[in-house]
Write a structure and sequence with these properties.
rod-shaped, two-stranded antiparallel ribbon, 67% helix
Amino acid sequence: MLKKCLFLLLILVVLGIFATFVIFDAKDHCLDYGGRYNDNTQQCEQ
């Protein structure tokens, strides 16, 4: 039981880190190229 809980927790942590990295990465790339990142549409606007 404990192993199963730890395994699920590990998956959640990895997914959380991955999601955060992807979201911030897209925003950073946008700002690096002098664009504006629209949070509502999740799009980079020039």
